[in-house]
Amino acid sequence: MADLPGRVRPGARGPPVRVTVVTTLPDRRLLLVHAHPDDESIGTGSTMAHYAAAGAHVTLVTCTLGEEGEIHVPALAQLAAAEADQLGGFRIGELAAACAALGVTDHRFLGGAGRYRDSGMMGMPTNGHPRAFWAADLDEAAGLLLEVIREIRPQVMVTYDPNGFYGHPDHIQAHRVAMRAHELAGAEGIAPAKVYWTAMPRSVLEAGMSHFTESADNPFAAIDSVDDLPFGTPDDQIAARIDGTDQHAAKEAAMRAHATQIPANSWLYAIAGNFGAEFMGVEYFTLAVGEPGPGDGPYGWESDLFAGIDPDPADLSGGRPDPSAGRPVASARRPERDAPAGDASAATATAGLR
Question: Is 50 among the annotated ligand-binding positions?
Answer without folding.
Answer: no
